[in-house]
Predict the 3D structure of the following.
Amino acid sequence: MYFFLFNLSLTDIGFISITVPNMIVNIQTHSRVISYGGCLTQMSLFLLLGNMDYMLLTVMAYDRFVAICHPLHYQVIMSPRLCGFLVLGSFFLCLLDSHLHNLMILQITSFKHVEISSFFCDPSQLLNLSCSDTFSNNIAKYFLAAIYGLFPLSGIFFSYYKIISSILRIPSSDGKCKAFSTCGSHLEVVGLFLGTASAVYLGSAASHIPQKDVMASVMFTVVTPMLNPFI
C-alpha cells in the first residue's frame, strides 16, 4: 500500500508542477503566451501524469481487493515484483497514450495568436483548433478515451463490488468498520479525481462555458492533487 502511495505522491507532485508554475509566471508577467513546442511538451506531460494518477488509483483498488478478499495470500500475491510490474506497466501505457495524442496534435497546422479558454494546453481544446476534417482525430480521441477511461473505471468498480460483497459477509460490526475504513480514503481520492475530471471533459462537451471550464480545470489540476496527501 505504501509503495503505491509513494508513487501516487510523486505523480501528484509532477502533475501539479506542469501547470501551476507556468500559471504563476503568467500572472506575474501578465503574459499568457506559450510556444508551440512548449505547448506540446506541457500537453504530453499533462496526459502522461494525469493518466498515471488514474492508473495508480486503479492499481490501488486491486491492492485493496487482494488485502480484504484474500488476506492470507496478500504477501504472496502482491509481491514486490508484481507491484513494480503494475507501476511500470501503467507508466508505459500512459506514455503510449501521450504519444498518440501528440501525433494527433502534430497533424494540426500551427497558428499564431490562437487563444484557448484555459490556463494550460488542454488536449481537448487543442484538438478543436484544426481547420481540416477532424473526423479521424475524433474517432481516435473517443477510442483512446474508451480504453483509458472505461477499462480502469470498470476495474475499480469490479474490485469494490468484490470488496463490498466480502465485507457484508463479515459477522462482527468492528470487522466491517475496519474493512470500510481501509477503503474510505481511497474512495475519497477516486471520487475527487473522477468527479473533477468528468466536470472538465464531459461538462465542457455538453455546455461550453469558459469560466466554468477554468474553474473545473483548477479543481482537477490543482486542488485534487493537493488534497490527495491529506486524505
